[in-house]
UniProtKB/TrEMBL annotation:
Record's keyword annotation contains Disulfide bond: no
Keywords of this entry: Electron transport, Iron, Membrane, Metal-binding, Mitochondrion, Mitochondrion inner membrane, Oxidoreductase, Respiratory chain, Transit peptide, Transmembrane, Transmembrane helix, Transport
Membrane-topology annotation of the record: Multi-pass membrane protein
Subunit organization: Homodimer; disulfide-linked.
EC number: 1.10.3.11
The UniProt record lists the keyword Zinc: no
Protein known as: Ubiquinol oxidase
Region described as Disordered: 62-93
Subcellular location as annotated: Mitochondrion inner membrane
Organism, scientific name: Rhododendron griersonianum
Catalytic activity: 2 a ubiquinol + O2 = 2 a ubiquinone + 2 H2O
Amino acid sequence: MNHLMARAVLRRLAGGRTSNSYVSSSSSSPFHEMRFGESAPLLRGRGLGFVGGEQWGRTMSTATRRKVGVAEKEREGRAATDEKKKTEEGGGTAVSSYWGISRPKITKEDGTVWPWNCFLPWETYQSNLSIDLRKHHVPKTFLDKVAFRTVKILRVPTDIMFKRRYGCRAMMLETVAAVPGMVGGMLLHLRSLRKFQQSGGWIKALLEEAENERMHLMTMVELVQPKWYERLLVLTVQGVFFNGFFVLYLLSPKLAHRIVGYLEEEAIHSYTEYLRDIDDGKIENVPAPAISIDYWRLPKDATLKDVITVIRADEAHHRDVNHFASDIHYEGKELREAPAPLGYH
Ligand SMILES: [Fe+2]
Ligand SMILES: [Fe+2]
């Protein structure tokens, strides 16, 4: 009872609205509704890296942020209760709250509601399909050879376990591939805090890589449903790999990035085999999952082959980024001394 009374008092303090108010995006404020394409100028501000014809701002200009701040203050005064309306507008799960937290209503170019909460239109991109897939870093130093051999050895159990079940193989490997970027980004983040230093953009670059790899996984999961023992394997492998890579990155980021570079080379090889099996008709070229069409800005009639092609291009980009990062360390420098390759994802 006290709890309910406290909530009622808070609602009144927050703006005098009744429980009929919404945290939804139905406000008349222009900042509550964004249309993919139409309202892009609203978000164009700092001119950060974009890829593809659709130029989306990832952040807002100072003036826009000020306006958004005013809009946010207006919105803070509203209570959130109407789950039905929010579900209709956002297509997602509505959570009752009096905190005034809500995502702006975002629509696609065709006016339909943007269906994803996990990524937004300005985070989508077109893969660079012209990237050289055959590039290889020839191992010369002792550490390079260790990295190369380690990856080749790791490939053996993977080949035995999955053989040519590339969907399953890709899904399982993506659960591992999304770890190094997060570990590296996290450690650079902590280093930046400890040393009062900028990171040169590398924190963001590595976290972007981790996010991109996770999106590969989210896509693969739409195509292949993991079995219970595969989920168990992921738990075990993640426990070992996260901790192992964490220690390795602390000891030798040079070796850690080189290993990831070679892992990405193997990923390119695996996805090339995957595409070959699709071309040969051994794997059905099913329609692409909706999440992949929006994330990579693929045509509506895109297929599995298109999805694997863009994922492979992403892997080639990760390969280059990680070999580059290793090379920076080989030159006796820190990553922050070389501008990070931001803006691809
Ligand atoms: Fe990946
Ligand atoms: Fe990758």
